[in-house]
Inverse folding.
C-alpha cells in the first residue's frame, strides 16, 4: 500500500494525469480557489431533525477533473458558526473522475431514510449554520479564526475548500451561503461550478447525496430528428432507426381507442395506389402505452398529424411510441391517402413493403381457420378459392410435392383480425373479477367476439369478399388484415368482409347418387366424447368453466370425458341427434362413444341412451344399436371410449352376430393403444340384396407417441404414432377378409376415424390391399377435419372392389370442422351472446362422411 503522505508538495490543485494512475491532489495556497481539483459540493446539517427526510447530516465532495483522486489521508472538518474547535472525519478511498463522494455524519432521532455514503463520521452539524473545511491532512485546524482575523481558517494552506453556511463567521469569497433548514441543503450546480465564493456558488434545495458508487446520470437524449415514414420503416424486416426519437407526419388511416391495440396507423400523405419501388412501406403504427387509454384527440381517421416518439420493433411490427402530448394536428394542407390495390404478396419481403399501409384486397379469398375466432375474434384466410391443406392429404409424406404444399400454404396465408387484442376465453381467478365464485370466470365473458354467428356463419371453405380497405399488420407471428376500426360482435358493425353462407341442411344427394340412386346409405361419424357418466358426479374431475363459473365439459383429473352435467349432456345430445337424423343414413358407424363397461355399467349403456334420444326425435323404433361383440377383451383392456354401430331396422337387417378384433389389445400389440375394430354383416331388409360387411375403426391419435419404433413424430407431416397406426391397418387388413368370408359378404365397407390423412402410410397399407377411399374418389376437394388452419380428412370410408361396385357416390357433410368453437356445446355461455342452437352445426369436431350403396354388387 502506498505510504500516507503527510507533507503535500507542488502547486495548488496539482494532479498527476498519467494513464492508469490515481492522482493525489495537493494544495499550498492560502485560500480556496476556482481551480481546486476537489470541492465541497453539498452541505446538510438538518439530518434527523423534525421534518427531515434523511436521518443523518452529510457533506458531499466532488472531483472537478478528468482523473480519479485519492482521498486517503485527507479529512473533512466542522466547527460551529463562531466556534474555533474543529471536529474531524478522516477520509479514505478514491474520488472518481467527475464523480461525487458522500461523508455521512451524526444521526438525529427523526427522518426516515439513511444517507447513502462512502465514509461514516460522527460530527453533529447545525441545521442552519456552520463551517466545513476540506483538508488535505487528518490534523485538526488550529491557530486560526474568523474571516475578519489576520489568519482566517479558510485561508490555511492545508485547506483545499471551505464552506461557511448560514451565520458562519468564516467562508470562502465574499459571503456565506444562505441559511439552510431541516429540509434544505446548500449545494453547488450540477456541473460543480466554483468561483471560490460560497454566497455565489451555493443555492438551497432538497438534499441529494450521491455516493461515488452511483453512476453519473445519462446524457440527455438527442433531439428528435425529422424523418419520412419510409425512412423509419426502411427496406428490411427491422427499422434502421430503432431506439431513435423521430418526428413524422402522416394521415391517420385506422384507429383503435379500445380493445387493447392502443394506437393508430399513420401513412404518408398522397401515397397508396402503388407500392414504393424501393420496397419501403409508407405507413407505421403509432403506439400509446396503457391499456385502453383514450387516444389523442387528433388521432381520428382522416386527420393529418405530426408525431414525435421513439422507434421500436414489437414482435416484428415497426412502431413509434408517442405520448398524447407528442401527437399534434398538422393542418389541412395535405393529400388524402388511397388504398393500395393488389394481390396478396406471396413472400414476407413483399408483405413487409406493405406493413401498416391501407390495402384493398383483390381477387378471391377463402376462410381456412376458425379455431381462434372464439378466443381472439380472428379468422384465418387463404388467398385463392381453396383453404390451406394438410400436405399429407394430397402428397406423400416428406416428398417434394408435400413440401410444395407447405410452401403454398405459407404463401397464401393471412389472418383477418378484429382490430383488438382481447382474449374472450381467458380465465381469471381474481375475487375482484369473479366475486365470491370458488372457480375461475372468463375475463371478457360479457363480450362477444367478432365473426361468430348462427345466421351469418363464418366457415372453413367459405368465400370471403372484402367490401372495404384494411390495414396490413404483423402481430403475434402472423401477417394480418386489420379493420380500420374495431369490429365488435355480434352485429360485426364496420366489418370490412362479408362471408358466403355455405351451410347445407343435409348431405349432398347429388354427390351420394352420382352413379345412380342409392338403395342404402352408410355413414361414419365421430361424436366427440359422447359420455353419459358426467364430470360433476366424480369429485376427481376438473372442468372447463363458462362465464358464470359453471362447468361445461370435463378438462382433466378423471377418466370421464365429455359433458360436465346433465344440462350440458342435454345440449350435446340434441346436437348429435339433429346431425345423425339429418344424415338420412341406414347404418352409421360412431366413434368416441363412452365405453360404459369401464364405469361399471353395461358396455352399451351410453349407446342405448343415444339411440333412445334419436328415436324420441325420429320416431319409435327408427334406430337400433348393434350389441357389443363377445369377441372384445375384458373391460380393463379396453379404452374409455369405444366405437359403435347404429342402424335402421326397417331398412337393413343384421346377419348373424357382431364381431370384433379382440385378441390384439394387450400392451405391445396392435390395438394396445387404440379402439378395437368392430364389424357387422348387413343386407337390405326388403327385396333381394347382397350382404356387405360394415367395419368401424378408430386408430391411434397423432398427438402422442406410442410404444413402437418410429412412433415419435419424425416431422414428415404424419404426426406421432405412425408405426402404431400402420400396425393397426395391417391387423385390420388381415382380419377383415376372414370375417367377410365367414358370413358370405363379398362387399366390405370400412368406416371410421383413422387419424390418418389421405396420403399417409397407414392408409397405404389398405390401398395396397385393394381398398378405395370413396370420400376422395367421389367428393374430391372436400375434407372432414381442420387443424391449425389446414384442411384434410381423418375420417374415411374404404371399400373393397366389390364394395366399390355397390357404391353410388359419397359426400363429406361439412357441419362441424369448419364451424367456430363458440357454437359447440362445450363452449356454452362463454360469451355475452348465447350461441347455442339445437341444430347439427358444430355437433362435433369431425364431419360425417356418407356413402351411397346399391343393394347388389354390380
Amino acid at each position: 500500500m502506498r505510504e500516507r503522505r503527510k507533507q503535500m508538495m507542488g502547486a495548488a490543485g496539482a494532479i498527476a494525469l498519467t494513464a492508469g494512475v490515481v492522482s493525489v491532489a495537493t494544495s499550498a495556497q492560502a485560500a480556496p480557489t476556482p481551480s481546486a481539483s476537489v470541492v465541497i459540493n453539498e452541505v446538510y446539517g438538518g439530518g434527523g431533525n423534525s421534518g427531515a427526510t434523511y436521518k443523518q447530516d452529510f457533506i458531499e465532495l466532488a472531483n472537478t477533473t478528468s482523473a480519479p483522486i485519492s482521498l486517503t489521508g485527507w479529512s473533512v472538518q466542522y466547527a460551529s458558526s463562531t466556534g474555533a474547535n474543529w471536529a474531524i472525519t478522516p477520509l479514505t478511498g478514491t474520488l472518481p473522475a467527475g464523480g461525487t463522494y458522500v461523508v455521512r455524519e451524526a444521526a438525529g432521532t427523526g427522518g426516515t431514510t439513511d444517507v447513502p455514503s462512502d465514509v461514516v463520521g460522527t460530527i453533529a452539524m447545525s441545521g442552519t449554520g456552520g463551517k466545513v473545511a476540506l483538508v488535505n491532512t487528518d490534523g485538526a485546524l488550529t491557530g486560526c479564526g474568523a474571516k475578519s482575523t489576520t489568519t482566517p481558517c479558510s485561508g490555511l494552506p492545508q485547506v483545499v475548500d471551505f464552506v461557511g453556511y448560514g451565520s458562519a463567521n468564516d467562508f470562502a469569497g465574499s459571503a456565506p451561503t444562505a441559511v439552510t433548514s431541516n429540509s434544505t441543503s446548500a449545494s453547488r450546480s450540477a456541473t460543480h461550478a466554483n468561483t471560490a465564493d460560497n454566497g455565489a456558488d451555493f443555492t438551497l434545495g432538497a438534499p441529494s447525496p450521491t455516493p461515488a458508487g452511483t453512476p453519473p446520470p445519462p446524457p440527455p437524449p438527442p433531439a428528435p430528428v425529422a424523418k419520412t415514414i419510409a425512412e423509419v420503416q426502411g427496406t428490411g424486416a427491422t427499422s434502421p432507426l430503432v431506439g431513435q426519437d423521430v418526428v413524422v407526419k402522416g394521415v391517420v388511416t385506422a384507429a383503435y381507442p379500445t380493445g387493447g391495440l392502443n394506437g393508430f396507423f399513420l401513412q404518408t400523405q398522397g401515397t397508396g395506389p402503388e407500392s414504393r419501388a424501393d420496397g419501403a412501406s409508407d405507413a407505421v403504427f403509432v403506439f400509446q402505452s396503457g391499456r385502453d387509454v383514450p387516444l389523442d384527440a387528433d388521432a381520428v381517421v382522416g386527420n393529418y398529424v405530426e408525431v414525435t416518439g421513439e422507434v421500436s420493433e414489437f414482435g416484428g411490427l415497426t412502431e413509434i411510441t408517442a405520448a398524447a402530448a407528442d401527437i399534434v394536428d398538422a393542418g389541412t394542407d395535405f393529400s388524402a391517402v388511397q388504398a393500395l390495390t393488389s394481390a396478396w404478396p406471396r413472400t414476407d419481403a413483399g408483405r413487409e413493403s406493405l406493413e401498416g399501409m391501407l390495402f384493398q384486397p383483390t381477387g378471391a379469398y377463402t376462410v381456412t381457420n376458425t379455431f381462434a375466432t372464439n378466443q381472439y375474434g380472428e379468422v384465418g384466410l387463404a388467398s385463392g378459392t381453396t383453404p390451406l391443406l394438410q400436405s399429407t392429404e394430397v402428397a406423400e409424406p416428406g416428398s417434394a410435392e408435400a413440401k410444395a404444399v407447405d410452401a403454398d400454404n405459407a404463401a397464401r396465408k393471412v389472418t383477418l383480425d378484429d382490430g383488438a387484442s382481447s382474449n374472450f376465453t381467458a380465465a381469471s381467478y381474481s375475487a375482484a373479477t369473479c366475486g365470491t365464485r370458488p372457480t375461475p370466470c372468463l375475463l371478457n365473458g360479457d363480450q362477444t367476439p367478432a365473426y361468430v354467428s348462427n345466421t351469418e356463419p363464418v366457415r372453413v371453405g367459405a368465400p370471403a369478399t372484402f367490401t372495404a380497405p384494411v390495414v396490413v399488420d404483423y402481430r403475434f407471428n402472423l401477417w394480418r388484415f386489420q379493420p380500420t376500426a374495431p369490429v365488435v360482435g355480434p352485429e360485426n358493425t364496420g366489418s370490412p368482409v362479408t362471408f358466403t353462407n355455405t351451410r347445407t341442411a343435409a348431405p349432398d344427394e347429388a354427390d351420394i347418387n352420382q352413379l345412380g340412386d342409392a338403395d342404402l346409405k352408410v355413414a361414419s361419424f365421430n361424436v366427440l366424447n359422447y359420455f353419459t357418466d358426467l364430470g360433476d358426479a366424480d369429485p376427481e374431475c376438473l372442468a372447463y368453466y363458462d362465464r358464470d363459473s359453471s362447468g361445461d365439459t370435463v378438462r382433466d383429473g378423471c377418466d370421464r370425458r365429455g359433458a360436465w352435467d346433465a344440462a350440458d349432456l342435454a345440449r350435446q345430445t340434441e346436437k348429435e341427434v339433429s346431425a345423425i337424423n339429418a344424415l338420412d343414413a341406414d347404418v352409421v358407424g360412431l366413434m368416441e362413444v363412452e365405453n360404459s363397461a369401464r364405469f361399471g355399467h353395461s358396455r352399451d349403456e351410453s349407446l342405448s341412451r343415444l339411440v333412445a334420444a334419436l328415436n324420441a326425435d325420429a320416431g319409435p323404433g327408427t334406430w337400433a344399436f348393434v350389441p357389443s361383440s363377445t369377441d372384445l377383451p375384458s373391460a380393463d383392456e379396453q379404452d374409455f371410449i369405444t366405437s359403435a354401430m347404429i342402424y335402421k331396422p326397417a331398412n337393413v337387417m343384421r346377419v348373424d352376430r357382431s364381431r370384433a378384433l379382440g385378441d390384439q389389445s394387450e400392451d405391445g400389440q396392435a390395438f394396445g393403444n387404440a379402439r378395437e375394430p368392430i364389424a357387422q354383416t348387413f343386407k337390405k331388409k326388403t327385396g333381394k340384396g347382397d350382404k356387405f360387411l360394415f367395419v368401424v375403426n378408430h386408430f391411434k391419435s397423432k398427438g402422442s407417441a406410442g410404444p413402437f419404433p418410429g412412433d415419435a413424430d419424425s416431422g414428415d407431416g404424419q404426426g406421432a404414432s405412425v408405426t402404431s397406426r400402420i400396425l393397426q391397418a395391417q391387423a385390420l387388413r388381415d382380419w377383415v377378409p376372414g370375417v367377410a368370408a365367414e358370413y358370405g359378404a363379398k362387399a366390405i365397407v370400412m368406416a371410421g376415424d383413422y387419424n390418418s390423412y389421405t396420403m399417409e402410410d397407414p392408409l397405404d397399407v389398405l390401398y395396397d390391399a385393394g381398398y378405395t377411399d370413396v370420400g376422395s374418389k367421389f367428393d374430391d376437394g372436400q375434407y372432414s377435419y381442420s387443424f391449425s388452419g389446414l384442411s384434410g380428412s381423418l375420417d374415411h370410408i374404404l371399400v373393397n372392389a366389390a364394395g366399390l361396385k355397390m357404391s353410388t357416390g359419397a359426400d363429406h357433410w361439412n357441419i362441424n370442422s369448419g364451424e367456430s368453437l363458440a357454437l359447440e356445446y362445450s363452449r356454452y355461455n362463454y360469451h355475452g351472446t348465447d350461441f347455442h342452437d339445437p341444430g347439427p352445426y358444430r355437433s362435433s369436431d369431425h364431419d360425417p362422411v356418407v356413402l351411397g350403396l346399391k343393394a347388389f354388387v354390380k
